[in-house]
Design brief:
Length: about 290
């Protein structure tokens, strides 16, 4: 394609976006839907859960999280494929340890991560830590925040400023707040109100279906239309003047009080590995929202 044709196509795209600001929302929603399943599957695998079993991760006998190991054989460190598999195992074990800390509300230190999980792969700690924390944020809605830099001490908290509290007494029970964040994202991308059928279609791409028991979220309708509505995070209401009756989702008062559209947009952008400014219309709306709150 010639440079002239490229310029024409870019001009037509810009014109469409000016004429139809919803085009950016639709593009973001479509890419958001497409981007979620990958992190979700990776996170579930890392946590040791599967749609079939629903079981929590249990380290293999003799794994690094159950005791000290000797130095890795030199050939293991030199073979890129074997090394990649070993680092993924370490990342999975670290996610499992962090989920335990989140469940029992205890901080975690780099020293503990090194001694319990990373061990002889210390040179790769930054990579293992980064991948584990990204997974916790994008799949489980958990942020890892450093609270004492000198001692490299971290706490695990719910993402985006949400104060939502989950009872996670069972070691096989995984955090569900990540799904709430995803739904808040879809509502924003749909123009601040999302038809119920659009939400269920988007969640279906993640393997979350109305009436189906999910290995992380349980029965999703009860969780979404009742529990999170009662908690004040979502509004579930009939679309005005719809006949036959149709329903839609909006942000609830607690969501408006605890988080912002900008934080949600940053989350959506991170899922899609894009900058929030790549959705200018949505970015401007989120920026106006923050300025109004100041």
């Amino acid at each position: 394609m010639s440079d002239h044709q490229d310029q024409q196509n870019q001009g037509l795209q810009a014109q469409r976006e000016v004429q139809n600001p919803r085009a950016q929302e639709e593009e973001a929603a479509a890419s958001f839907s497409a981007g979620i399943p990958g992190p979700l599957e990776e996170g579930a695998a890392a946590a040791g859960a599967s749609p079939a079993s629903g079981e929590g991760h249990q380290p293999d006998e003799g794994s690094s999280s159950q005791g000290a190991e000797g130095p890795a054989p030199p050939q293991e460190l030199e073979d890129p494929e074997v090394l990649r598999d070993a680092l993924e195992d370490k990342m999975s074990d670290l996610i499992h340890l962090m989920l335990l800390k989140y469940r029992i509300k205890e901080p975690i230190t780099k020293e503990e991560m090194m001694s319990s999980v990373v061990q002889q792969y210390g040179d790769h700690f930054a990579e293992i830590f980064r991948e584990a924390t990204d997974c916790l944020e994008l799949v489980f809605g958990i942020d890892v925040k450093e609270v004492d830099p000198p001692s490299n001490c971290y706490i695990l908290v719910t993402s985006m400023g949400l104060s939502y509290h989950e009872e996670l007494d069972d070691e096989n029970c995984l955090p569900k707040v990540g799904l709430l964040i995803i739904i808040l994202g879809f509502i924003f991308l749909e123009g601040n109100s999302a038809p119920e059928e659009v939400i269920w279609a988007a969640l279906g791409m993640m393997g979350v279906h109305d009436g189906w028991e999910h290995f992380i979220y349980g029965e999703p309708r009860q969780l979404i239309t009742h529990h999170w509505v009662q908690e004040g995070y979502l509004v579930y209401q009939q679309v005005p003047q719809s006949d036959p009756a149709r329903y839609e989702f909006l942000w609830g008062p607690r969501a408006h009080a605890e988080t912002t559209k900008m934080k949600v947009l940053e989350y959506v952008a991170k899922i899609n590995k894009r900058d929030p400014r790549s959705f200018p219309y949505l970015y401007e709306e989120a920026l106006r929202d923050e300025e109004e709150e100041e």
